[in-house]
Design goal:
Number of strands of chain A: 9
Strand content of chain B: under 5%
Strand order of the largest sheet of chain A: 2-5-8-1-9
Low-confidence stretches of chain A: none
Radius of gyration of chain B: 23 Å
Order of helices and strands of chain B: HHHHHH
Structural class of chain B: mainly alpha
Largest sheet of chain A: 5 strands, parallel
Largest interface: A-B, 31 and 27 residues
Oligomer: heterodimer
Structural class of chain A: alpha/beta
Number of domains of chain B: 1
Helix content of chain A: 40-55%
Number of helices of chain B: 6
Number of helices of chain A: 14
Low-confidence stretches of chain B: none
Mean pLDDT of chain B: 84
Largest sheet of chain B: none
């Protein structure tokens, strides 16, 4: 084990985000998947973090057959997450209900502490969306009906998929730090990826790196990055400059989904390196978030970068 | 360098044993409220800002944490009044706001 720890120690200084994210669903090919893999790894880096505000959530949307559900299946295999089809859970009740003397906490409470893989989020009913929103933000949700008022723990990280992003309420969308549109691949890109698919298909299934990934995340799990006092004003200045200068259309993006999200991403990046939060993590987080936002909300005229 | 490390890790993947680290016990605020003795809560609430403490006095609340017992709606307000507290509906909602804004962060620290 000493050898493993030594290698992990070396990896902290050699871009663990790039290296380890390659282990996540390598059969899903195309440029956007590189960022999606990184987003998932950042989410998982803070999976067991005691600080709830550090939780990250991911949404993939796009046409059927672009690999969204494939990713959920891969995440189930790697991290043991729970796949839930949002359309079907609406009949059972994700957030439960109160009837007469009894409160049924719903399925969400039973997912406490887990990675929740939600397929077809756009087909979820409004009540469940509200409960999910509260769980994603606060780590618990409350059932209030008549004289009943009970709060249930639901500390979940969510990876969700949707065909139609417009059917998801804006407040719920706002809770997702990462929103990626998965597109149908151009033929050239598809042809380039054939090698990876074939290799994975015929691979012996033993050297997938899943165990390396899980062991590494476990190894960093009790590390909590801090920010050094002298770095705080630099971080403030970096965020201010980004907001003022970016060409990305951020005006309708809430502070929760921009400033706070960038800080959460930087925290996860630092944690992956077992390092305190440095200005370079903020810079990397800004670049990562901005690239994602540009694809999502587009750009405006003016601005500096 | 990174590729070398990756290769070495994959070579020894089978030998890796994952020993789960003990999870941190971070009780939710509701649970902390249930467990904390009233005296200890009083001590914690002394750290609340002065305007909040004054507001508590005005609404006849001994502890801000007591507001958590009442749902933040009209039904909760009626029960709150019935228990002898004083104020209009806005005051009642304000207490809930103070609870989330000032007391929950204090409880999270302990």
């Amino acid at each position: 084990m000493e050898k493993v720890e030594q290698l992990f120690e070396e990896l902290t200084k050699n871009n663990p985000l790039n290296v380890l994210s390659e282990f996540i669903a390598p059969h899903l090919i195309g440029e956007e998947w590189k960022d999606i893999r990184k987003a998932i790894l950042l989410m998982m880096a803070t999976q067991n973090d005691g600080r709830q505000r550090m939780r990250l959530h991911t949404l993939l949307w796009g046409k059927s057959g672009t690999g969204k559900t494939e990713l959920l299946l891969a995440l189930q295999e790697i991290f043991g997450g729970i796949i839930v089809n949002a359309e079907h859970t609406s009949k059972v009740g994700l957030v439960g209900d109160a009837r007469g003397e009894y409160i049924n906490p719903g399925l969400l409470a039973s997912y406490n502490g887990n990675l929740l893989l939600l397929d077809e989020l756009d087909k979820m009913n409004g009540k469940d969306m509200n409960g999910l929103l509260q769980a994603m933000e606060e780590g618990h949700y409350t059932i209030v009906k008549g004289k009943h008022r009970e709060t249930f723990e639901a500390e979940v990280r969510v990876v969700a998929t949707a065909n139609n992003i417009n059917k998801i309420t804006k407040p719920l969308l706002d809770r997702f730090d990462f929103i990626f549109e998965v597109r149908t691949m151009p033929r050239e890109e598809r042809a380039e990826g054939v090698k990876t698919i074939v290799e994975n298909f015929f691979g012996n299934g033993e050297k997938k790196g899943y165990k390396v990934l899980r062991a590494y995340l476990n190894w960093i799990s009790d590390f909590e990055p801090m920010i050094e006092e002298g770095d705080t004003p630099i971080v403030v200045e970096m965020l201010k400059r980004y907001i003022l200068l970016t060409k990305t259309a951020i005006d309708d993006v809430s502070y929760r989904n921009l400033e706070l999200s960038i800080l959460r991403i930087a925290y996860a990046m630092a944690k992956l390196e077992k390092s305190n939060i440095k200005p370079r993590h903020i810079e990397e987080a800004i670049v990562f978030k901005d690239r994602m936002l540009k694809r999502l909300v587009g750009v405006v005229d003016g601005g500096g970068y | 360098m990174a590729e070398d490390i990756k290769k070495k890790l994959l070579e020894i993947e089978d030998e890796i044993k994952i020993e789960k680290k003990q999870e941190k016990i971070d009780l939710p605020v509701d649970e902390k409220l249930r467990r904390l003795p009233r005296e200890k809560l009083k001590e914690i609430e002394l750290q609340l800002p002065k305007h909040v403490l004054n507001f508590l006095w005005r609404t006849k609340m001994e502890l801000l944490s007591d507001i958590a017992k009442y749902p933040k709606n009209r039904t909760g307000y009626v029960s709150w009044l019935a228990d002898g507290y004083a104020g209009d509906y806005t005051d009642f909602l304000q207490l809930h706001v103070y609870y989330v804004r000032f007391l929950v962060p204090l409880l999270k620290k302990i």
